Amino acid sequence: MLTRLPTVSAADYTVSQQEFGVRYDRGLYFGGWCPNGACGTGTADLAKMSRQYFPYLIRDIYGSVAVPESLGDIEPMPFNTNPARLPADILANVKGLTVIRDGVQSFFYHPYLGRSYLRDVVIGIKALGYQFVPAATVAAG
Predict the structure, then answer these.
(1) What is the DSSP letter of 84?
(2) Exposed/middle/buried for 24, CB within 10 Å: 0-12, 13-18, 19+?
């Protein structure tokens, strides 16, 4: 089973790993969580939170298989200190990641945006020679 988590804590990621084992997201990582490489033994510092984007399947510091959401999402209006992102932005990211051999490129789409933006992204990605496969297929390796 796959799950896409909203912004959560390091402890939440650990529980998610125990429950599901696989995530589809752009993971959050916290300073202090892995003192001397021993992940889970420290205290996560929320002031030192960062995201790391992977263009391929990984097993992360929480022990989960993480299917990457490497392209971000579409946000027609600036949101939460982030600029607006449109289909052209997603497609520019796709083009930038074409140098990665056997990479996984994916994006998150908010259904409330309707189909127009989604259609533009899907057509653009397919025109670049990519094919769409289920996240569960990617997670299976």
Answers:
(1) P
(2) buried
